[in-house]
Amino acid sequence: MSNSAESSELKRVLGLWDLVFYGIVLIQPIAAVGLFGIAQQLSRGHMVTTVLIAMCAMMLTAVSYGRMASIYPSAGSAYTFVSRGLNVHLGFLAGWAMVLDYLILPIVSTVYAALTLTRIVPHVPFGAWVLLLIAFTTWLNLRGMRSTARSNIILLIAMCIVIAAFFIMSIRYLAMHGGSSALFSLDPIYNRSTFHLHDVLTATSFAALTYIGFDGVTTLSEDVKNPRRNVLIATVLVCALTGLFSSVQIYLAARVWPTYSNFPNAETAFLDVCGRAGGVWLFQAMAITLFVACVGTTLTGQVGAARLLYGMGRDGVLPRGFFGRLNAKTNAPAFNIILIGVITLAGAFTLSYEHAAEVLNFGAFLAFMGVNAAVVKTFYFENRKRNIVTDILAPVAGFLFCAAIWWSLPMLAKWIGAAWVLLGIVYLGVLTRGFRRPPARLDFAEQ
Fold first, then answer.
1. Of 88, 148, 321, 426, which has the maximum CB count within 10 A?
2. Over 60: is that where the pLDDT of 2 sits?
3. Residue in 187, 201, 427 with CA at minimum distance from that of residue 319
4. SS3 assignment, position 393
5. How many CB atoms lie within 10 A of CB 423?
6. What class is the 2-431 domain?
7. Helix or strand or coil: residue 328?
8. Nearest-5° Cα angle at 172, 167 to 175
9. What angle do CA 150, 151, 155 make, to 5 degrees?
10. Three-point CA angle 368, 374, 380, nearest 5°
């Protein structure tokens, strides 16, 4: 037992800042860039405020994730926490909502990559870029090619260099066009003439996409020194640093382009801001960075969704004959990869970037609410040592923040999300013979 304990202890090699760095890599430092134009229009010029509101919801939820991860370290994250903390059937539905996110993520990244390419090479139509991108990423995944940790680090460095250049050129531009009065203003945070709470909350439900991925930190719980402390602190720090860094980006962009209603193209408005602040070279540098990041996300998102479907087929949650098969040469779930490519193609031609992102947030915030509820049941109702602040007030506040953002989603996202959840409930009823037996376990460990 002593040797076993020593061996287990030696595996815990990650410190607090290792986790924070990992979380920032997952979210990406340019996460808010692609959301800028649409969020500015939805909020009437108050995207900075939406990012800060979402940060409050995410930090409270991050505390809940950190606390549950200290008890149940798992790659399943929200699925595991809701299953263990609340109920296995509710856990299945939380996992079902996560499956929706896996299916939607390649659509979001493909659409934005194609939009970016149309700004670089405008004479090639959007539809042609979508077809080329999906064919390319599907082909790579069928061959079993995946991005490496080294390529991700190189991309992260490139992002930081381009964002640093944007900071410098934006400050220079504002100093030359108005001085301190142009650089310092409360208008991006609160402009009395355009502020409307309903619009800000609606935009927050879109801008919250900035933080998607922060919960990935909790999947490393078994490799962390002092996980009870470090996982919780790291998840909160990742949300806080992402929120503050994104707020500075958006603030400068809003000052460089103060009129939110006249973007040449709302989906790629940040590129126009870069062009105004730094000229053609900054425009092109940001566009290339965004494109490469989106292709990387599409690659990993497609194979992640395909492997999740494979796991569900292997375990009998989905028909094993189709979903539970691997290619003998590449060891890749070829049928699933092709299926995800078809779903991505259909989604890219039927959903706008804004609508796809909002559907993604439907599933994510449903899972966030479930984790906050699981904390209340686990730490307040099932624990003798109760703390009313940490065990009920904080998670309830996180739940309500997330519920407000979720409720503010547009109706299209709600209808699509509700249809998916209803399908999950019906399917769960069939699998469990009327909810009379536990559902099959969903395996997120391979993603």
1. 88
2. no
3. 427
4. helix
5. 12
6. mainly alpha
7. coil
8. 125
9. 120
10. 135
